[in-house]
Structure formats: C-alpha cells, structure tokens
C-alpha cells in the first residue's frame, strides 16, 4: 500500500519519495507546515494563527476591530458556567466549550434529553443532567421501554390451546373442537346446530358428530338422501318422475294422461279442422318426415301435444277457419284496386295501366308525340319530351312536344354578361329569364350587390322578429347566412349576429374561416383555407343537425362543407336573440368575444340573410361606418414596392414589405452596415459588453460572407470564461459548448456568397476557461449580427433599433471589401486576372482553359476531319469515330510511348461475322490475340512471364448485329501476375483459370486490328490509349499510337439497305437489324413476313353464338336470349318464350313465368320435359325446340355419339404400319450420326479446345481457327 497519495518509488527496493501537497511535509506528508514560524504578521494585527497551507493575522488577545483599537474581553472564572471551558478567540473574544448536558453562550442552559422522545410505547420520560429516565406503562420493560413482557411464559392455556402474547395480557387460540378465550378451552357441542336432516339422531364427538338415520327413510352422512322410488322408471312417454317419501309422482307432457302418463290423448277426435281441413296428430311419429310442417323437426314428447290442420285452398289458420285475403299482399301495382275472391283476386287498374296486376304501363310514347329529335319519357298516363340541344346558330326547341322554336332570347335585355334562358309562358307566349353572374341581381341583372370596406367599420341593422322554435322545428327559412367576399387580410370579422350571450359569427383567423354559434352551448367549425388570397369566395353558415359551413371558390371549385362533431339536439335557437346583425365588423363590446377582434377590410357581394337578398342601396340607409358601394382594388404589389429586397404583402389598402435580411425600412430601401474582418490577412476583431440578461434560451443570427473554411466567428464569455463558441469548421458552422442543446444546420457557407446563419441555444451555461484553436481568425464580412432582438454594431443605428455598441474594435473595415487577389498575377498563358471578392477569375484565351488558364484546348483548332469527334486530353487530343471494316486490317505502333502498364484492353464492336481477328500482336516470347469464334469472343495471351499460354472464350455470343462494349482486364493489376477477366456490356462473360502478367510488350511491338473481320468498330483502347481508326495529324500527347499501314475504313456504321426492297407484307413495318431485318406486323397478321392472317375465331370466343372471322377482329352471331361482344350476357328470358291466351311473361332470376288471365292456368310447353338429351347431357328449353349441352366424350344433337368409341374403331393395322416405319428411319439416322461424329473427331485433332489445352498448359495453334497469315502463326 502506498505510504502517501503522490508517491514515486525505485523498483526492486523499499525506497520511496512522497511528493507532498502545499502546506504539508515529512516522510509521509503527515506533518503540517507552520507558516507562522517566519513571523509574517506585522503591524497592528501581529498575532499569527497557523492554518492548512496558509496563515491568518489577528489582533493581540484583548483587542479587536478593523484597527485593533477596540477592547475585547478575555476569559474569567465567571465567563463559562456549569463546568464549561473558556477559550480566547483572536479578534473576537472569549468562547465557551460546554460540558456534556449544557449549551448556550455561557453554558447556562441545561439540554433537555427528553426532547428527542427516546422512551417508547407510551412511557414517561424524566430529564436529568446529560441523562434521562423512562417510566414504562404496564406490559413493557427496558431502559427505553422497548421490550414487551411475555405473558405466555407460564403456559396458561388448557386442552392444548395455543397462547398468543398481547400487550399486558394474553389470548388462548383453542384446538379444533374446543372454545374459550382465557385459561379454559371447553369442548364444543357440534350437534347444537342440528346438522342431521329428516329427523336423524345426532351423536356428539370431539370436533365431529355422527347421524343415526335409522327409521327415517333416508340415508347419507346427514340423512339427506331419499331412497329413490323412481329408479325403476315407472313414468311413460318421457314424463318426469317426482320422488316422495316411500312414493313417487309422474308429471306428464301435454297430450298424455294417466297415473304413469301411459294414455295418448287423441286431439283429432273432436274434428277441430273446419272447412274440410284434414287433421293430423303431432303425437303420431309417422307424421314426422311426411308432413311438410314436421319435415325439419325431430319427434319429442315436449312438442307432441296438439294437432295440425291441412286446409283446402283459400283457407288458412290453425283450424282452417280463416278465409285467405289474396289482396292482403297488395298484388295490384300502380294504385290498382284489388277485389278478393275465393282462392283468387282481381285487379281493377287505373288509367294508363293494364295487365293482371296492372303492371303494364301503357306507353304513351308509342305514338311518337315528341318532335324534332326529342326523346320521349313515358310517365303514368302521360309523357314528357326532352328537347335536343340546339344546333349551332339555331334556337332551341320547346313546348310540350318540342315543336316550338324558343326565340325569347333573341332580343333579351340581360346585362353584365348574364346568361339567358328562353321559355314559354303558361299561355304559350315567348319569354326568357336572366341568369345573373355573381355581384348582380334583378330581373335584367342590372342591380349591383357589391359593397366594400376600405377601413374598419360595420353595418348595423335590426332584423324582423319570428316566432320561437327549436332547431328541429326550423325549416329552410330558418337561421341562415350567405355572402361572397374577397380580401388579403388574415384576421377580421365578416359578420356578428345576436347578443353577447347568444350569437352567430363568421370570421377569418390566420387566413382560415371560423364559424361560431353560442346558444346555451358553443359550436365551432373551421375551414383551414387559406381564403385571404384576394379572390372571391362564397361562404354560407346554416344550422342543420350540425353547424354547417359551406365554401365555394379557388381550391374548392365544386364546393366544400365542414360540420361540427356530434348533433345539436340541445341547441335552442330563440330568433329574438338574433335580431341584431352587424356586417363587416361590430362594436368593440362584441368584437371582444371574437378571436380576430378586427373589422373587415375588403369587398362583399350577394349577402343573403335568412335566404333574403340584402342590396347595398338598402344597407347604406342603415347605420353604417365605412360602407362604400361597389368594389375597387389596387394591386399594390404589382410594381414591386419592396425593391426585390423582400416579400410584398397586399394589405388591401396599402402594401407591406417583409424585408429580407439585412434590409429594412417601409420599402426595404435601407440596409444594415457590414464590416470586413481579416482584410489583406490582418488580424481583426470587435468586442461587446452584453448589459442585459438574455436567459438560458437565446438565439444568435448574422449574415456572413467568406471563402476561408475555418476560423472563429463569435464567442460568448462570462467573467472572462468563454461558454459558447461559434466557429467555421471545414466550411460549415460549428458550435462548442459542453452543456448546451444546440440547433444548427451543417450547410456549406464559405462559398463567397451572403449566407444567413441562425443558432438557437437552449440552457446555455458557462464552462471552464478553455480556449482551443478555432481554425484561426475569421476572414470575411459580417452583417446584421443579432443577439435575440438586439443588434451588435460598430456604427449608428436608427433610434427604433435596440443595439449593443462595440466596446473594442481592431482592424475592422466598414463595408464589405475584397483583398487584391490579382496582385501576384496568378493567371498563366496570357490570361487576364479579375478580382471576384477575396478570390480571382482568369479570363483565358480561346486556346486555354482551367482556373489558371493552364490547360491547352487543342480541339479549338479543329485538328480532326469532318464527321469525326475531337476530344481534348490533358496534354493533347483524340479524334474519335466509328468505322466499318470489310477485311481491311490496320497496323499500329506505340513506339514505347505508353507511360502506364498495359492491364486493360477495351473496344466497341458491332458485327454479324461469326469468325475473325479483332486485335493481334506478337513479341519474342509474348503473344496476344482477341478474336471471334463461332460468334463468341476468343482470348489468347502469353505475357512471357511464364511458360503457360492463357486461352478462354466468352459464354455469350456477340455477333448479333448490335453494339457491344468489350473489356479485357487483369483482375489485380497491382500484382505482377493475375487472372484475366472478360466482360461484355459490364457483365462478366469469361476469364482465365491460370494467371498471367501484363501486356507491356504492346508498348514496343506492332499491333494488328480487324483482320479477316467484317463489321463496325468504335473506340479501341490499349492501356487506355486510343487507336485512331483514320489517319490524323501527329498528336501532341506523350502516349499515342501511330498508324503504320492498312486500308482506310469507311467512317460511320451503316449496313446494307436491307429494308429498301420492302420485304414485309400486308403493311408490316421493316426494322433494320444490321444486315438482317424483322417485320413488325399490323393488326390481324403474323408470320416472318406478315404473310399469315390471324384467325381470331380459333380461340372460340363466342360463348352462346357462332363466330365469324374478320380482319383483326371477329363477330359473334348470338343465339336468341343472349347479347354482348362474346354473347355472354343473358337477355330478358321473355324474349325467348311467349305466354298464350293473353298471359303476361315475367322475368325471374335465371328463368321466367307466365301470369295467366282469369280462367286460364298452366305454362309454356317445356320442350325438355321428355328428357330428350342422352348420356347425362343438360337440356336447355327454347321456344319450340331444345338444346343439348353434352358432357365431355359425347357429341351429336342428342349427345348420342361416343367420341371414344369412334377412336377405338380405328383399325390396328392403320397404327402399327406407320409406327414401324418411323422406328426404322430413326435407327438409320442414329447410325449415320455416329459415323459422322467419329470422322469429325479424327479431323479435329490438334484444334482449339480451351478446357483441355489450357489445363494442360499447351500452346495453341491460331492458324487452324482464325486463318492467321503464315508469317504470324505460332508453332
């Protein structure tokens, strides 16, 4: 264990050294240093008192005060009483240390030890000197009376009773069978409760009893069980047996009688069924399953009583006593009267109807009364004509039969673009009616309904009185308000109707519409809007089962409705309370009950009160303030009064500008000043004294402009300790304060533009004195710096703005200034430097680009030919093109110009040539070839770093006539050897099993391109360097391939004009697929050349009909009773069937029925009644014929032919002979295939086989596959 806190020791020894804290010394730092040894106290306070790591100077004993001029008493014998010890305290005087049991300045007060209530359990405490004594109540003992005396120690309870100790006494819990509370536990008499039943004799035991049941007729522990006389089941017919004492009784079900219920009562004996009805007993088991009333019921004795009557037709009731009223179901339709008959009825039809049930409406339209193309609508004993819309420049038709031209609108007098509707008066005269647009009224729409308020005011009117009624009694002419308005202000009252206690109000609150009703309880609905958009909005407020707010206008063109939750059963509207109406506002005592509290400013029109239109010329006669007729509005924001420095808000009578920072003023014409910090890389700052408390939650905001990504922006300090630091870190605003929840955006702000920064601080607390590196000084401009609502400034601000003025500023320039960034002439190649605020821009000549004009633009001089695309490189240019090859190969040489290792080869190809060489080169020991074999890619390479030749093919064909991007790369180009991967269009299609090195030998060897190849090539790159397909001037770049020879290809990639011959038939479209074509056939045709017409009937689309093939379509001729495109929809069954003798056919679900006239019965002849269809077929009844639907395997009109039997009748020889011939031919083909395979195997020995030869490590001969020239073949 260490001998001190800060200890150092010498390993391997017991030596140690303690480094003592200030004020202590000694081996273990336990000795206090006496700072008074050096007599540090001089002057009047010369008495030195030693402290821990310090001392204090005091006046001599007996003196005190600031200058030790006061006399201070010292200790005497009488100072401390009751044995207290007196001590002289410097500068203060005597102080007593009291003996135990006393306290006070002079120890004069005896301490009351009983005050802490040490005695427990109600004991009495007596105080002494530094002591106390407890006097216990009975039952307790001990110095604090905390010990309970055990009264059970003497075992007072008898008969094995358990003693329970309690306070100052005990209690006995007796053993089972005994009772008592003190010493005696007396035996309990269990027979006292008479537990034995039915006069059984009780015998008392200890904690139990026995019952003697002898002679009682009962058995059991309590003589409770009767001896069962019903055990022999004496009661018959399901009767219930009731036990008695030595006897029983049978309770019979209704319908049975006798002592044992053995007699079945015959209910039909008295002939209860009247009017010839037949009686059946319910107790007869044979009737169950026979009578329809008992079909679903099982026989039970409980339901066996009674009888069932089967009545003759025309009678009903339990005993057939009731004559059936066939008119009771009201069978007669359309108001026909029904006359009841015996087992029948007859309908007497009203005018316009006929039929058995008056169900047939006599069609008055059958006479075609409507003229001029009008449609006729049949009505009850009448008709109605719907006139057609008029032709252009024609008047509409009118009149009862649409036979009169309506010319009433030809010279109409409707004004203000009102619509006109022509009509005929009751006496047949031509007339018209005007449809007024919003804002106009009157017979000719010449009365304006528009009025406005350009200042807060209102109209006051007294409405007429109506009788009291509840809300449920109100009709359409009840409490209702409707108007149209437009305004741009968000908060105002449109109207207030009623008193302070009961009212209806409509107001705008933050642009939303809110309706209130107060009448006993308060109802409230809100339409969120906004509706203060300066456009017309129609709004109505009405009371239904709910308070309803209806709005129509922009955003709600079809109308929107808002209702309050719940129902208004308890609302009682007293119209006398709603006589006062204020429009456009209200007096202040009423506005105080609204949310907005302001009057309306804007325009209104079409004001309806209780469905009555109120005109402005009438309103102006009422008490009004600020009412103006008509509506005039100036677009205050049209001319941009805010100077593009803020958002203009149209306040209806003026414009209001919400200025963007740092602008202010009525038109945002003024700007808060800015300051430049770090100009020309100087160190600058400003300091402010914050004289007011902003609490723990505050915000800091400012505009900044900078290009320096790091630097201190602002730091808040308290008593010299910084507790919040805002700084730039990698171009974003960062905040440091360990105990603060901060909100900020990690947005890039050092982009040279003005950026508004806002920091919201919650619960900011000062932290310790810590100043880290904040990325150096801030360099840039600050503007409009605010701490909450106060501005931090170094200049004079308007008097209305609260500011903190800078107390210190150093190297801060007024305004926002840029460094002279062009003084070092940073632009190259003759570029002109322009200062762009703390940065510069180089205006380069046409041949250079880049930030410093350091990049040469070669393509500006058009070094490539027409039709070839020039692409600039860092040190040169490339001329890119596509070209088509037809066995015209090209030769290239890099001349050791490639700077990077060759680990990748890419090219774009388009061909239908199945075999050919795309790229080939050979060195002394190296070889590379990329070609086509059977439409797949073939790769062979040997980098010379090993004796193994890598060869592999792609698992995907590329000779399909479309462009493909081919890429051959080393899997790990950083290694000296690696596997190679082949990809086509970004997907892996092959790779080597073994490893090989890079292809750096291509840097100084000849490369052949497109040997024995027909097709197009695009960009071809070796090691990322382009192989030019056409001759171009010598490029300036370091790495480049030069053309050594070859035939010039044709620029572009265009195959033979294969579609010029128009091979596709029947208007098919020919699609050029690069030396191949496809035909896109028109509707109704198919085939390679669109030569075959599609038979749309082949799929059997007609369900109940015959299919007729058409061009690109089909037509179904449906059977009677069916319709639809595929004859799948069933028509009215009555179209197929007819009822004779004046019977009416009635359509039913899936069938029909005939309603016969009086005196006729029956139905149409069922053609399927004789079951003519055979072999399980389904018969469909048709008019005068039937139709058989056969099951699978049968055919014929009656499904009489078995399809399988026809098949089985085929002679066996007709099957055997063709099968034998086919087997012989197959055997010949198999033998021929085996012979050809053997010959081919011998001929292919030594040719390319990647799977076998690569594994074996053999070198492959290219000549047999790709027809390589003799001088280039590999041995």
UniProtKB/TrEMBL annotation:
GO cellular component: a single term: protein-containing complex
Alphabetical list of Pfam families matching this protein: EGF (PF00008), hEGF (PF12661), Laminin_G_2 (PF02210)
Domain EGF-like: 32-69, 71-108, 110-146, 148-184, 187-224, 226-262, 264-321, 323-359, 361-403, 405-446, 633-669, 818-854, 1055-1091, 1093-1128, 1130-1163, 1164-1200
A GO molecular-function descriptor: calcium ion binding
SUPFAM superfamilies, per the entry: Concanavalin A-like lectins/glucanases, EGF/Laminin, Growth factor receptor domain
Location in the cell: Apical cell membrane
Annotated S-S bridges: 59-68, 98-107, 136-145, 252-261, 311-320, 349-358, 436-445, 659-668, 844-853, 1081-1090, 1097-1107, 1118-1127, 1190-1199
Major place of residence: membrane
Keyword set, alphabetical order: Cell membrane, Disulfide bond, EGF-like domain, Glycoprotein, Membrane, Repeat, Signal, Transmembrane, Transmembrane helix
Protein's membrane topology: Single-pass type I membrane protein
Biological processes annotated in GO: hematopoietic stem cell differentiation; positive regulation of cell differentiation; regulation of non-canonical NF-kappaB signal transduction; system development
Transmembrane segments: 1212-1235
Highest taxon listed in the record's lineage: Eukaryota
Claim: Membrane is one of the keywords in the record: yes
InterPro entries: ConA-like_dom_sf (IPR013320), EGF (IPR000742), EGF-like_Ca-bd_dom (IPR001881), EGF-like_CS (IPR013032), EGF-type_Asp/Asn_hydroxyl_site (IPR000152), EGF_Ca-bd_CS (IPR018097), Growth_fac_rcpt_cys_sf (IPR009030), Laminin_G (IPR001791)
Record-annotated Laminin G domain positions: 450-631, 675-816, 880-1053
Protein family membership: Belongs to the Crumbs protein family.
Name used for this protein in its record: Protein crumbs homolog 1-like
Organism: Seriola dumerili
